[in-house]
Amino acid sequence: MTLSDWAAALIVLAAALLTVITGFGFVVLSAPLLAYLYDPLHTVYLSVLLSTLLLGILLAGREIRRVMRWGLVLRLSLWGVLGLPLGLLVVPHLDKNQFRLALGVITLAYVAFRLWGGHLRLGHPRLSVALAGILGGAFSTSSGMSALPVIFLAGDMQLDAFEHRATLAGYVFFTGITSLAAFHLAGTAQTLQLQEAAVLGPALLVGMLGGTALIRRLSERQLAVGVLIYLAVNGVIALLPV
Question: In which element (H, E) is residue 29 found?
Fold first, then answer.
């Protein structure tokens, strides 16, 4: 393994560990740093692929599937398909600096939103679902961060904390599958990216095991604060010039 492979493995391990704690967010936890190592398209594809693998493992658990709002996941995912081409059109035109800057701004906006503690409310649940799904699809193929529009617009969806986490995980998983299919149909997926994912797979699994152990040792508040601090640091680092 090269030095960049080891760096990527550490990033993936940390992101997987924190994703097990939060139930979602692998890409927003990893992509801002992976963008220093890879070009934008490689970063997005690799992040989405690893995120989909991780969430597939988490969704194998009966408890998370039991509380998931399957109807909402389906509606969000179907709307998301409409947004996939938008992201595919955008990401090839971004250079590494523009891409990192965008990821940094998005990540810090998410941190600020979580600290604010609110949700945007449009007052029209069906419109919120459609808009969140379409924007999530566009975010998925342009940055990998399909969860963020759903988080921002979750105020109209009437979910408790457990339903929110499970439903979001289901949506990101299914949007990840459709995004990967879109990359392959568009001819932008490469064998190198699949090989890189295979190299980083062990780090993903170790991170998941670490996250499972930490959940039992730390309180919900300590975990939430730790995740936000990690995200804030990621966002700031993404804004730094190379």
Answer: helix 26-34
Q: How far apart are CA 182 and CA 175, in angstroms?
A: 10
34: how many CB neighbours lie within 10 A of its CB?
A: 25
Neighbours of 2 (CB within 10 A): 8
Q: Which residue has the tokens 């059109």?
A: 89
What are the backbone angles phi and psi of residue 118, rounded to the nearest 5°? Answer: -115, 180
End-to-end CA, the chain: 23
The top-scoring range by mean pLDDT among 75-84, 119-128, 218-227 is 75-84
Q: How many Å apart are CA 89 and CA 105, to the nearest integer?
A: 20
Helix (H) or strand (E) holding 47: helix 40-58
Alpha-helix runs per DSSP H in 40-160: 40-58, 62-67, 70-90, 96-116, 125-142, 147-152
Amino acid identity at 30: S
What tens digit of pLDDT does each residue of 95-119 get? 888 898 889 898 898 888 878 776 6
> 166-210 pLDDT, tens per residue?
888 899 999 999 999 999 888 877 776 778 888 898 999 999 998
Alpha helices (runs of H) in 143-219, residue ranges in sequence order:
147-152, 161-185, 191-217
Q: Which amino acid is at 233?
A: V
| Rounded distance between C-alpha atoms, residue 238 and residue 139, angstroms | 17
